[in-house]
Specification:
A: 13 helices; globular; B: MetI-like fold
């Protein structure tokens, strides 16, 4: 293909990356996968899976984690689509300012970002202080360590990703296409839903995939805003491993987390976004 | 025009939701209260003084910095050749290999850290710090490949071919012609990867031990025990640093086009 390179040079170029990932990324994962099938006296067994899957706490946490991702993702789409559309239509100077405002949270430490919600939702936080001083609440309500707090935190964490993917998808929709739809008598809303949305569908699927899998595997947000009271898959896994020293349980949860993400990634890939991965 | 007002309204609400918390942190960091309270009852700089005086924050800051630099450089060294083949070569199985190269960005970070801990630290007895460095390198690798590939795609290949046809060896042409031309892409990859490493929690979570912890992990540990605005002050410092980095790189490199 390349007329001035040796034909197989590309193998040499790929080799360091491949070797690194096999040794330091793939082998540890395979090791953990094998461990999860180890029986009490060696051999292959499903006993660890049976233990974890029959544990009511695990089931509850697993369903809660999925439920929260199922709440966060559609809200991110509903807020992200109009905002991304609005940003796309701006002049390039204004657009680049707003884009850097979207990127700023993405680049900021998630610990710092999530910490803000303690100040807002905490016992003496903004919401409680204003509601009690207005006399609406007699004493502070518990807003922290709830599923709602985690949902709000996840939303703030992942909205920028949704907006970025949607903006870059909508940028590819040419203005002429939109103008054509409008001049042919389509209303603005009709144009949005029948021209913009279908043409940016790949971006939507990519955004949904990233936000959904991100919500399921997020650690910092549930750790700070849910604590030990409202566990999710990732905080449960940490608790099993580092607090309860139940390494077998943590191993099984790790495998379940990988499987869940892989299933979601590949499931959503069926919608055939070209840009995914 | 009513509809575009609705769009403006939604976008404005979205930005308040996205950026409001930053303002809240910065205001609360100047609080005189010993317990997190909003609005603060007085003004003080004591929490900033406290951040600078807590030794664990200083040592973990340096550890995050060193880990981030080492992992970013390694990921670039591994990633640039891969990005080059991505753009310049076609070969059988390329799609599968590209998927493999991006998989560290897909597998949950928590699981990557956990598996490194189980395999290398418990079985192969590698020091925790090495595990931390390797885990960070693995997750940064897909970023460097993506950003450098994007930058290579914009580089006119004819220039490289001209160098070779004028007698330069392909290797020399790469270093003398290609690399200087994708400089801004390399810097963008470096900055994005470094920030990703510096902010990372999931991979680092299991790769901590006696004397080994990154700054975000240390912040989480502190928050479990103390409820004073120290973390507000530290977070404000991190936010200001991020703003400076983004502002300067956006102007110089247009980093948003690589995201």
């Amino acid at each position: 293909m390349n007329r001035f390179h040796f034909k197989n040079t590309f193998i040499l170029l790929l080799l360091p990356g491949i070797i690194f990932l096999i040794i330091f990324f793939l082998s540890p994962l395979i090791f953990v996968l094998m461990e999860s099938f180890k029986g009490a006296e060696g051999g292959i067994s499903f006993i660890r899976y049976r233990e974890v899957l029959s544990d009511p706490q695990f089931r509850f946490v697993f369903i809660r984690t999925l439920k929260m991702a199922l709440i966060v993702t559609p809200i991110a789409v509903l807020v992200g689509y109009p905002s991304a559309y609005f940003i796309t239509k701006l002049s390039s100077a204004k657009k680049s300012i707003l884009m850097s405002l979207v990127i700023l949270p993405l680049m900021t430490s998630p610990v710092a970002r999530t910490y803000a919600w303690i100040v807002i939702l905490g016992k003496y936080g903004i919401i409680n202080q204003s509601l009690t001083s207005l006399g609406i609440l007699r004493e502070p309500a518990r807003l922290m360590y709830t599923e709602g707090a985690i949902i709000v935190g996840l939303l703030q964490l992942f909205l920028p990703i949704m907006i970025l993917t949607l903006v870059s998808a909508m940028e590819n929709v040419q203005d002429e296409v939109e103008e054509a739809a409008l001049s042919l008598g389509s209303g603005k809303a009709g144009c949005f839903f029948r021209v913009i949305v279908p043409l940016s569908f790949d971006g939507l699927i990519l955004g949904v995939t990233l936000v959904f899998t991100g919500s399921i595997t997020a650690y910092v947000t549930p750790a700070i805003l849910g604590g030990a009271k409202v566990l999710t898959l990732s905080t449960l896994m940490r608790q099993e491993a580092l607090v309860l020293m139940n390494w077998e349980g943590a191993t099984v949860i790790a495998v379940i987390m990988i499987l869940t993400t892989l299933v979601l990634y590949n499931g959503l890939r069926l919608f055939k976004p070209r840009t995914l991965v | 025009m009513k509809r575009s007002k609705l769009l403006l309204f939604i976008t404005a609400v979205m930005f308040v939701f996205l950026l409001g918390p930053f303002l809240v942190i910065i205001i609360s960091s100047f609080s005189s209260n010993a317990v997190m309270r909003f609005p603060p009852e007085g003004f003080s700089l004591q929490w900033y003084r406290k951040v600078l005086n807590i030794e664990m924050f200083r040592t973990t800051f340096w550890m995050s910095l060193k880990t981030g630099l080492a992992a970013t450089l390694t990921a670039l060294v591994l990633g640039v050749p891969v990005a080059y083949t991505n753009v310049r070569y076609r070969y059988p199985g390329k799609n599968i290999l590209e998927l493999f190269f991006s998989s560290p960005a897909i597998v949950p970070g928590l699981v990557i850290g956990f598996s490194l801990l189980r395999f290398f630290i418990y079985v192969a007895r590698i020091p925790v710090l090495t595990g931390l460095y390797l885990g960070h390198t693995a997750i940064l690798f897909p970023y460097t490949v993506r950003v450098v590939s994007a930058s290579l795609r914009n580089f006119d290949r004819g220039i490289e071919e001209a160098a070779v046809s004028l007698g330069s060896s392909p290797l020399h042409a790469f270093f003398a012609v290609v690399l200087p031309n994708i400089q801004s892409g390399l810097v963008a990859a470096f900055i994005l990867a470094f920030i990703t490493s510096f902010n990372n929690v999931p991979v680092s979570l299991f790769l901590t031990g006696p004397g080994v912890a990154t700054l975000p992990i240390q912040m989480l540990v502190y928050m479990e025990y103390y409820f004073d605005p120290t973390i507000s002050a530290l977070s404000s410092i991190l936010i200001v640093l991020t703003v400076i980095i983004i502002q300067s790189t956006e102007k110089l490199l247009g980093i948003s086009k690589y995201m």
